[in-house]
């Protein structure tokens, strides 16, 4: 009997959304399982003090969320998304494997006996090498997998468009599930079973899902890499500088553009009057001959679309810069927020909640906010404003920034209350460990930040995907991630600067050895003020921002010049 594998492949392809979502689930399971409890590992196992551990968490998270810029660029320009996913997955597994071995091989263990005051330097080196291998793997994997999954569906077919919507639903569901399981199941194993068993579980989960993903290789759709998307930007700059002495034409219709029939993939953009210096790159000089079979040098003459793409990137810089303080607030979740929970009463009856599990409140706040926004607010606001999105992308981002201020304010108030109880109990000799204040007092600050994530972080993801040039869309996720990446570095810088300014000869300052000897509430107030001031600057910039202006059609007669097509905002 002859068995054909074609039906098996057909069935396998039906489960594309589930398969793509599975690998996202396992990666987010690993990421949140490691990142949310990282500060606990650094302080309890490697024995670092609070400020050193917080900075190390910030730097690791910063590198992890900045490397996707490099990974996304290399995937778009050279390797392609599938190859980048497989290469980065192998690096990711290498990091997880080393992390696991460091808990089981005697020479790599933190302590040769059960506990020790100073862990092995060999273990510390192996641990950080493993963690940064995971960062490197995330840098290639994160900007490519979601885009690669979406590439499997054709927007020109109605049925596949529906499947694509299903894919994104599964994707976000998997992300939330990975987060919740990471900060509950994995964190519980780390705290109450063993770090080695938890890391082994993550390694096995990631290995299984990568194998499942690789088995679909024969039936995937692949997009060809078209070279560096940054080269056309450089060509516009060079051409504009070369023609800097030429006067602007009397009409934008006289600037150079190609017809849609010659445009390979990206859409044509309409001319805007901002940053007009770069328009000179599209001025046609008298000695330039244009024909359908002979293209001018791209280093001497650029199209209006190329000029506008450069303008888009330059206009995005102020928005990106004013989003960084929000990323600094997000950085506090994996550092001081978690350390606050370790210094509070986490018991529910006879069960003690792992410190990092409180992070689930952020996920709950984000999930509820996204559902309410999508199902209730958007339809209502759409009728009021006439905007297809209900409110503009930047309005959504700015609204979420308000909650970062509220979160830091609430965190400062709760930390001040916790410190008051801690000092009172220490003086009375009641307790030298966690105070009697319930950990659920932290719920509001986690909830506010979760709501802020639903508006600002999701809004930034949409903004960078929508506003970047079409040739750079796979880098949009990387730009979005870089906000939290730089935010983590800024948090580390602020900790160093504040410690230097507030520290005295006897070593006291805002950051001591532990939470009870620190004044983290002052640091929260500082972040609240910085975010409030930054919000004012963001509103000022957002009110003057011009969104991408895409042409609906180009007339056939406009073969070489002209930009008179109807446009949409």
UniProtKB/TrEMBL annotation:
SUPFAM superfamilies: MFS general substrate transporter (SSF103473)
Predominant location: membrane
Gene Ontology cellular component annotations, sorted alphabetically: membrane
The keyword Transmembrane appears for this protein: yes
Membrane topology: Multi-pass membrane protein
Gene3D superfamilies according to UniProt: MFS general substrate transporter like domains
One GO MF term attached to the UniProt entry: transmembrane transporter activity
Compartmental location: Membrane
Transmembrane segments: 57-75, 82-105, 170-189, 195-215, 317-338, 350-373, 393-414, 448-465, 477-502, 522-542
Pfam families, alphabetized: PTR2 (PF00854)
Keywords associated with the record: Membrane, Transmembrane, Transmembrane helix
Family: Belongs to the major facilitator superfamily. Phosphate:H(+) symporter (TC 2.A.1.9) family. Belongs to the major facilitator superfamily. Proton-dependent oligopeptide transporter (POT/PTR) (TC 2.A.17) family.
Protein name: Uncharacterized protein
Source organism of the structure: Escallonia rubra
């Amino acid at each position: 009997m002859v068995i054909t594998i074609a039906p098996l492949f057909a069935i396998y392809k039906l489960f594309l959304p589930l398969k793509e979502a599975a690998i996202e689930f396992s990666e987010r399971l690993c990421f949140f399982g490691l990142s949310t409890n990282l500060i606990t590992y650094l302080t309890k196992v490697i024995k670092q003090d609070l400020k050193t551990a917080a900075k190390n968490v910030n730097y690791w998270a910063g590198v992890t969320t900045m490397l996707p810029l490099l990974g996304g660029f290399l995937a778009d320009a050279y390797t392609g998304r599938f190859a980048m996913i497989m290469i980065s997955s192998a690096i990711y597994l290498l990091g997880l494997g080393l992390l696991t071995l460091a808990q089981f091989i005697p020479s790599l263990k933190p302590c040769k006996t059960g506990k020790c005051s100073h862990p092995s330097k060999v273990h510390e080196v192996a641990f950080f090498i493993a963690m940064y291998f995971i960062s490197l793997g995330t840098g290639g994997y994160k900007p490519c997998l979601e885009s690669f999954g979406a590439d499997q569906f054709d927007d020109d077919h109605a049925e596949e468009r529906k499947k694509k919507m299903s894919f994104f639903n599964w994707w976000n569901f998997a992300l939330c599930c990975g987060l919740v399981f990471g900060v509950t199941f994995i964190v519980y194993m780390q705290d109450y079973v063993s770090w080695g068993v938890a890391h082994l579980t993550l390694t096995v989960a990631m290995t299984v899902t990568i194998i499942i993903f690789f088995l679909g290789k024969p039936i995937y759709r692949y997009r060809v890499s078209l070279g560096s998307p940054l080269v056309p930007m450089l060509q516009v700059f060079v051409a504009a500088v070369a023609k800097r002495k030429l006067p602007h034409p009397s009409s934008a219709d006289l600037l150079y553009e190609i017809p849609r029939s010659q445009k390979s993939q990206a859409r044509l953009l309409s001319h805007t009057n901002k940053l007009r210096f770069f328009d000179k790159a599209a001025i046609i000089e008298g000695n330039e001959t244009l024909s359908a079979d002979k293209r001018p040098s791209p280093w001497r003459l650029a199209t209006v679309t190329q000029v506008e793409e450069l303008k888009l990137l330059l206009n995005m810089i102020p928005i990106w810069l004013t989003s960084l303080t929000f990323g600094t607030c997000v950085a506090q979740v994996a550092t001081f927020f978690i350390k606050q929970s370790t210094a509070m009463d986490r018991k529910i009856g006879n069960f003690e909640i792992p410190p990092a599990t409180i992070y689930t409140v952020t996920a709950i706040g984000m999930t509820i906010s996204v559902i309410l926004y999508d199902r209730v607010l958007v339809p209502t606001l759409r009728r009021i404003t006439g905007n297809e999105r209900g409110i503009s992308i930047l309005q959504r981002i700015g609204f979420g920034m308000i909650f970062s201020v509220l979160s830091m304010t609430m965190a400062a108030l709760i930390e001040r209350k916790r410190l008051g109880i801690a000092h009172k109990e220490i003086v009375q000799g009641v307790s030298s460990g966690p105070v009697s204040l319930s950990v659920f007092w932290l719920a509001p600050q986690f909830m506010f930040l979760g709501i802020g994530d639903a508006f600002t972080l999701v809004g930034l993801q949409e903004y960078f995907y929508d506003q970047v040039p079409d040739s750079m869309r796979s880098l949009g996720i990387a730009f979005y991630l870089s906000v939290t990446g730089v935010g983590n570095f800024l948090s580390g810088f602020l900790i160093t600067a504040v410690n230097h300014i507030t520290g005295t000869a006897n070593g006291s300052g805002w950051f001591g050895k532990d939470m009870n000897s620190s004044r983290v509430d002052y640091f929260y107030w500082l972040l609240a003020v910085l975010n409030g001031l930054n919000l004012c600057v963001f509103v000022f910039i957002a009110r003057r921002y011009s969104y991408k202006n895409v042409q609906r059609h180009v007339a056939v007669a406009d073969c070489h010049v002209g930009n008179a097509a109807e446009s949409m905002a």
